[in-house]
Amino acid sequence: MEKVTSADGTTIAYDRLGSGPSVILVGGALCDRNSFRPLAEALADQYDVITYDRRGRGDSGDTAPYSVQHEVEDIAALLNALGGTSAIYGHSSGAGLAAIACNALPFTKVVLHEPPYGPDDVDPSDDGEQVLERIREGKDQEAVELFLLMTGMPKREALQVAAIPGLANLAPTLAYDFAVMEHGVDQGATPTALLSTINAPTLVLAGTATAPFMIDAAHRVVKILPDATFTELPDQHHAVPPEVLAPVVAEFLRR
Fold it and tell me: I need a labelling partner for 137 at 20 to 30 A (CA). Which of 28, 41, 218, 219 fits?
């Protein structure tokens, strides 16, 4: 484990594996740097791979008040540690954060894996407020359960996942993910203006067996981005095994 210091003084913990061109992996909700260790290991024979704990998670610190800009500054500190040159991969709300970071930082290539922008004619704020209310009441496991149900996970599976030891400790950071996904949104749920300014070559990924709204979001996003391609991952859900995902990401980064 290594650490960098973000602009507001927050310590950000990260791991670095492999050698070659750099790529920063940005995790989504309820993920820490260990969540992407298998993907990092699968890419490490070709790339210098960085996984990190987003603020408030794992071995990273946290500084109040939260802002999305602070999370961008965390990524900037990692990029600086890499010498200022890197690609970036984001999964789920981590893809939303990666997209925001691309507006402030120079990345060579971008991979957005199922950014969970909801349908533009549906307001997700009510469900999000229910999750936040559970967190305020100290009902962290219930908050995780409700969040997972929001993503389309079947109830039985959501209850099992929410009961994984230690996962409920990450519940307070769900507020950060909601803030990320709302950032830059004017009308509807897709930050069109923000996405339209990403000029780096971008790969948008979605599994054919994932939640339908995520597939729809991927198709919307690829139409907005100036330089984007879309790749389907056959029979894959939101979480994709590294042996399936790594070759797709590596091939795009090699282009």
Answer: 28
DSSP-derived 3-state class of residue 212: helix
Q: Is the dihedral of CA 130, 31, 9, 191 positive or negative?
A: negative
| Complete DSSP assignment for 18-38 | --SSEEEEE--TT--GGGGHH
Tell me the per-residue pLDDT of 184-198, one tens digit each, with 9 for 90 and over.
887 668 999 999 999
Q: How many CB atoms lie within 10 A of CB 64?
A: 7
Whether residue 92 is found in the same domain as residue 198: yes
Q: Residue 137's CB: how many other CB atoms inside 10 A? A: 10
Same domain, 112 and 156: no
Structural domain range at position 216:
2-121+177-254
Note the pLDDT of residue 28: 97
The rounded distance, in Å, linking the Cα atoms of 203 and 231 is 7
Distance CA 166, CA 58 (A): 10
Label residue 113 exposed, middle or buried (CB < 10 Å: 0-12, 13-18, 19+): buried
